[in-house]
Each structure stands twice: as structure tokens, then as C-alpha cells.
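Q: Replication restart protein PriA, please. Structure only.
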Amino acid sequence: MKYADIIIDISHERLDKTFEYIVPTELENQVTEGVQVVIPFGQGNRAITGYVVGLHNKPGFDVTKLKPIARVLKDSIAIESQLISLAAFLKKNYGSTMNQALKTVIPIKKKENEKLKKEISLNISLEQAQIELTQILTKKNHAVGKERLLRELLEVDVLDWELATKKLQIPSSNIRDLESKGIVKVESVRTFRNPHINKDANQKHIVLNEEQEAAAETIKADIDTGRRKTYLIHGVTGSGKTEVYMDVMEHVISMGQQVIVLIPEIALTYQTVMRFYTRFGDKVSILNSRMSPGERFDQFERAKSGEISIMVGPRSALFTPFANLGLIIIDEEHEPSYKSEVIPRYHARETAVYRAKLAGATVILGSATPSLEAYSRTQTGEYQLITLHSRAMGQDMASCEIVDLRAELQSGNRSMLSRRLQELMADRLNKHQQIMLFLNRRGLMGFVSCRACGHVLKCPHCDVALHLHAGGKMKCHYCGYTTVAAKTCPSCGSKYIGSFKAGTQRLEEIVKELFPTARVLRMDADTTKGKDGHEEILSAFAAHEADVLIGTQMIVKGHDFANVTLVGIIAADISLNESDYHSGERTFQLLTQAVGRAGRGSEPGIAVIQTYQPDNYSVVASANQDYDSFYSQEYAYRRLLSYPPCSHILGIQISCDKQQDAIKQADIIADIIRQADSNIIIMGPEDAYIGKLKDVYRRVIYVKADEYDRLVNVKDTIEAFLLQQKQYRNTSTWFDFDPISTI
Ligand code: ADP
Ligand code: ZN
Ligand code: ZN
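A: Structure for Replication restart protein PriA:
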């Protein structure tokens, strides 16, 4: 006999409130997680519908009190069923409770006070607004936010406050200022509306080039003949993948179906968002991670009611409850942000493919530097590969030069800038062309250490370094612990204690010394702290308000700078030294994307890659813009060492505030794994990457197997064990399948 957990109201905050029913033998084959069923409910046995969210062989209650499921609702295409099946998929393949999985896919309606939406519109005529704009532009160092707001309001009648301040990154002070001058007015409205865009004024008509056309036609022809597949569009940077997506989207929407477009948060910029708005107008809605649960809920409601047919957003947009989903697009599919960092730690790519299967939809993945996972599936025929070989307007790819920093050092140049790069910079500055300098370095900068003995000052609650902050304070970025900056080293007493400057900051100083008249902008975690920082710096650079843009990986995404003819990569191998099997892939991706920033306009571009490892295959392949050669070498390496996609890894983290208990429990779990699968490869237990966080000790075990299902079995066995274990209930355990960073 089987028993089913049934959930009755999925908009309820407590999704774990389920009711148990008997599955009659004749229904056993039909009752699976996600199906909609009719059950007798309450005293009067009223027939109501519910969803099956769990199945088990043992009853959790007195069987004589349980009632049987009346029937299965056939052909129930309710979107809820699909989402619940999706939750079951997450639970099984990534490890979590059903409740956690349900909360991931179904937005919770919180009782929130209804918030009034604010809208901004012009308070003056269009002609007057044009004059105001001209006046603003004549001012040196004018507020970019004001300029943008006026430009926007010259195109659209009303602008949503949230959109203006969040997505378009216009500072609210700028809006209030224009309001106080009587130029714009801000009004509160009850309902949510998209910006109204004067489509004709805005739409630049793009005709797909031959390659783009062929790509779009292939996919559309399959859709028309009922073949729903997963495609990987491998298109060089600037090849116009987005135009291909939009062409297929239009086709799918004309068939009355809906589209989800996933974009990594970092690339969800003003430019990208506007491209979708101008093409599809009111049909589009945008999700972003800064929205409150209530706002997300509202967006999902609009999707369910058919008010919109395109949802653009980061990975969580994948769960948009479109009833008739026809297409899922994942742009920049290689981005690590598609893997969830909270439980269930799902990957949006695999989950999208599963959702598409349930919905009968097509999936398009796109990237200039596909992940090994996706590309290897095109080799086995699981996905179909579509290649865009050239840039949209036929521009040449940037030519690339590798500079060996070891040779540079030997010849006496100790600067961060090689002589070749300096020479090219001088030339570009002379020609009034723009330069981007890219320093791929993050994480450890700013931490406090002793220059005499190397001692690193750590947080007493976490196994991580403290960072120096303004006002003579040191702070832990994980738990917020703050203390007075040390004056002497607690280990050796030396007074040579301090923080490393961010590499980008040093670089900026060097550039300013060498080229005193060059206008330099810097973009890194420091300069983008304010929420408008990011977008403001990029727009200023796009408007040629600076000659040189220095930055971390943030600068390689999103914007198209036509005037950039030189890209300098200061230290290409920094990311190669990360202790993670992805480091070769990340390096190749970052370098290729960075090189791809050069020569987007009519002038050809040059990229200079400075490196200590000029022979490394990731460096050489990105310099040659040769994905195939990178792929075959990286794949061979993964094959040799049994890393994904050739094999699979399950990371298990065990944590406890008592160190001894964490250690013991991890040992017990390792034993359970050995008993469950005596031939499986187990690494650890050992301390986690961060061995202590907020006073909680963390141990990890890694398990490797060629077959994913074997790892799912391991996880199931551990879960079953944990459920009945009496000891060590103060510990907690979670799973990470094919982790993308060291846990
Ligand atoms: P990708 O996403 O592949 O990097 P985009 O879709 O962003 O490329 O296109 C790069 C630029 O080329 C954009 O400014 C886009 O408007 C332009 N573009 C793309 N396709 C065409 C085309 N067929 N004709 C004219 N311009 C195009
Ligand atoms: Zn010291
Ligand atoms: Zn801490």
C-alpha cells in the first residue's frame, strides 16, 4: 500500500501543511508527485482538489483514520502540477526537503501591506523637455541620472518609479530634484504597469544576417513541425545572439505561447532590458533579485493571468507560472550564477531542460564560451549545436598579442604595464580611442596581514580574513564582526601590519602617473558600492567621458562600447591559480569575453594578454579565439581526473557548533556511504573551504561517480539514515551536486 502527502492550498505560506491519504491500488500507476487529485475532505467528505507532493510506503498516521484518494484529475494541465513536478525533480536531483523545493518553485504570498506604485511623467511639454535636456548636457559633470530620466521621458509617457530607480539606476535624488523644479511629476498609482514605450520612435530595424537567419530558421522549423529540442548557440562575442533569440521569441509568442529569458544578474543592465522592452513592449516583465517577495508574487500573478508573455530575469525567473510555456532561453549559459547557492542547489540549465520537457517547450542556450557541460552534450547529440562564426556587422575579431611577464621582468620592467601595452595605450590616447584594462582579481584584496611574518588577521567566529574599513576598523564580511584595526601584529609584534590595496586601485595610480592627461574611470567592488555605481560608470564610459576604464570582471559584461580599440589584460593567469577544477574554464571564459570587448565598432581592435604562463592552453586558446582547441584540451583533463562533465561529484557538508560533533557525524556519514556503495570514490571528511563560519564548524565529504544516479542513491541513503538517527541531531547536513565552487 502507498500513501500520499497532499497539499491543498499552494498559495499558503506553510507549504509543509499536507494531508495524508491512501493511494488505492488501482490508482498506483497514475499517482505521482505533482498530479492533481480529488479527495474527500473534512467531516462532510466534501470533494476537493489537491496536489500530491510526496509518496511513501509507510503511513505516518493511524491507517484506520486515513481516507483514500477519490480519483486523479486526468489531463490536468494546471501549471501548479508542472511546478510541483519540478519541485520533486529538484528534491530528488539536488537534495532538499519537499518543502524547501516547493518554496523554491512557488512564490509565497506574504501578507504585505499593499504598496503604492509610483510613476514618473513629464510635467512640461516635449519641446520644453528637449530644451531642458540640452541645457543639462551643456553642463560639465552633469548628473547622468537626470539626463537619462529626461531621455527616457521623451520616449515614453510614464515611467515606473521602481524601474527608473532600480533597473535604469536613476538616483531618486535626481528625480526629486527635477520634480521640485516642476519638470517632472511623481504620482502614486495602485496597479503595476510597464513603461509605455513609443515603439516606432525607438525601434531600429534590424535585419538578421545570413548566419543569424539560418540559426533562427532551424529552430523555428523544428518548432513548427512539433520537434522540441535543446539548442546551444555558440556565437562569438558580438555575433548577435540576442537578435536570434528575439526572432524565435516572436515566433513562439505569435503561436500564443510564452517565453522565459534567463540572463545573469550582472548582465541584466539597462541596455539589455531596454532591448526587450523596445521589441516586445507591454508583453515583457522583468524580475530581479532586489524585488521583495510580494513584488515577485505580483509578477508571477501577471504571468499566470496571461497579462504578460515574456519574463526576463535571473535564475529564479525559471519558475514563472506560464500556463503555456513554449520557449526557455538561457543567455550566457556558462555563467556560474545559474547554479543556486541555497538549498536546493539546483542548476538552472538542467532544471530548464526538465521544465521544458514537462511543458513541451524548446530550450535555447547561448554563449560565446559554452560550458564544458553544455558543449559536451552537443557532441553526444543530446543538444543541437548552432554556430555563429562571425560578428553581426562583419567586424573582425580583435587581434591578440601575448606578453610574457617573466621576460618583461628580466628586462627590468617591474611595472604592471608591459612596454608593449604602454606603447599601444599611448597610440590609442593620441587617436582619441578608448581603452579597457582588465584585472581579474577579487576576494583576497583588502585583507589585513603582517608583512614581517605573514600572519593573517582572522575573524574569531569565522575562518576568514578580516578586511580593513574606513575609520580604522576591521570587519568580517561573513558575520559582520567589527573590531579596531590592529596596530601591531598579534603574532610577532611587528608594526608592519596593513591591508593590501586592491589591484585595480594600484593600476589606476600607475596609469595616471604614466598618462597624466588621460581621463580614467575605475570599476570594482569599491567604486560600485552605491546601487547606481555600476551603471553610472558604464554609461559615463559609453558616453566617452573617460579614455580608460579599469576594472574587474564586472566590466566585461553587458555594454557594447564601439570606440574601444584596445583591451589590456593585466594578469591573465591569476584565475588559473584558484584551487578548483573550473579554473582553466573560468580563465578561458574571462579572457575570451575580455578580448571580445575590443573592436566592436568600425575600428579594428587589439587585445594584449599579459601573463606569467604564456604557454597555458587556456591563455593560448583564448588569444587565438579558438574554443574547439580549448574544449578538447579541457575535456581531456576532466576525463583524466574524473571531473564533470565526464564524471559527477557530490559534495556533502556537515556542520555543527560543537567541533567534535561535526567531526564525528562526518565520520559516521562517510561510513554510511561506504556501506551503501563499496566501490564509490570518497574524499574526506575534511574541513570545509571555510572551516568555521559564525562559530559553526563545517566538514565536507566529496563523492565521485561516473553515473549521476549513483550519487542520487548515496544522497537518498544518507537522508533516510538522518531521518531515523537519534544521535547528533544538533548537526545539519546538506548536499551539493556537481558543485561549481569549493564548498
Ligand atoms: P551577442 O549577444 O552575440 O554578443 P548582440 O545580440 O548583443 O550580440 O549583438 C551585438 C550588436 O550587434 C548589438 O548592438 C546588436 O544590435 C547588433 N546587431 C546584431 N545583429 C545585427 C544585424 N543583423 N544587423 C545589425 N546590427 C546587428
Ligand atoms: Zn607578524
Ligand atoms: Zn566572522
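A: Brief note, in case it's useful. The two ends are 40 Å apart (CA to CA).
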